[in-house]
Amino acid sequence: MEKISKTKIISAKIPEEVYNEMVLRVPEGDRSNFIREAIIDKLQKTPKPDKLLELQTKIDKLESNFHEIRKQLADLELLTYHNGKLNPHTFCIDEIDHKIVDYLLHYKGATTPELAEYIKTNRWLVLNRLRKLQRKSKKQIGEDLIYYYAGEKSGKKKAWWINQKIIDI
Q1: Are 111 and 66 in contact (CB under 8 A)?
Q2: Who has the most CB within 10 Å: 28, 33, 160, 166?
Q3: CB–CB of 80/86 below 8 Å?
């Protein structure tokens, strides 16, 4: 501990229970040192305002770099956003995915059996593909390209819907 050459007197109000506990634990001649050391210890654990400012500056710089990287990725078309909109076919890996997206774009929504009948495959394959498209879009852009809604919407119950807010078409 660093020696303090000049001292100042302070007064503090503490709850009676805390005072009584201190009287029991700390001998009478050591109480002033005990309180001083407790304050110094607490101050060492509290960040200085200049440290907070330094951390804020670093965070701002990181955010700026992150936005620059996102912009460059978008320019390279690795990130699917374009002016806040995207091409839903970007997330497709094969013809089945393209057919699912085409159907959803045309009809805005569909049940899994409807999609399976349209694609002429089983509904489990369609369901897995829908979930993959959903996960992939969520991972890449932070939002679902398609989403499942169990309630009734546009005359359909338990159907998958394309997110109209984020598509470019």
Answers
A1: no
A2: 160
A3: yes
Name the burial class of residue 88, with classes exposed (0-12), middle (13-18) and buried (19+) by CB atoms within 10 angstroms of its CB. Answer: buried
Alpha carbon distance, N-terminus to C-terminus of the chain: 68
Residue type, 31: R
User: Phi/psi at 143 (nearest 5 deg)?
Assistant: -145, 150
Residue 76 tokens read as: 């390279």
CA 70/CA 74 separation, integer angstroms: 6
Residue 45 structure tokens: 């654990």
CB 147 within 8 A of CB 134: yes
The CA radius of gyration of the chain, in Å to the nearest whole number, is 31
Give, in degrees to the nearest 5, the angle at Cα 40 between 35 and 44: 150
CA-wise closest residue to 1 among 51, 53, 36: 36
pLDDT digits (tens, 9 = 90+) for 5-38: 788 888 989 999 999 999 999 999 999 999 999 9
Distance separating alpha carbons of residues 49 and 94, to the nearest angstrom:
55
The model scores a pTM over 0.70: no
- What would the pLDDT profile of 48-79 be if each residue is shown by its tens digit? 788 888 888 899 899 888 877 866 765 565 54
